[in-house]
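[Automated response] Your request has been received and processed.

Submitted sequence:
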Amino acid sequence: MIMKVNAWIILLMSAHLTACAVPGTEKYQTSMDSVTAEKISRIIQSDVIPYKGENHGEVISRVSSAFLGTPYQADTLIGGPGTPEVLVANFNGVDCFT
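Generated structure:
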């Protein structure tokens, strides 16, 4: 149980830290604005850490509910045959792949 919650914390923190890296130094590029980074930090602090002993499904439900009401935004993916893929974390708007 604790292992599963810790995995969520590590995943979210990794995304947050990757976005803070110096551009061009990481193997995979990440695109994240400050609003999204703040929301990740807030979710970790309020919806993950205080409930680290809770059922994994309940933690997932709590974290995913933080995204209810997020508007749809088309074409958020970056990458293609001639363009390197970029991990896009944008909680201002999400598409069907987010």
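Summary generated for your ticket: The first strand starts at residue 29 and ends at 32. Helices lie at 2-20, 34-48, 56-65.
If you did not submit this request, please reply to this message.
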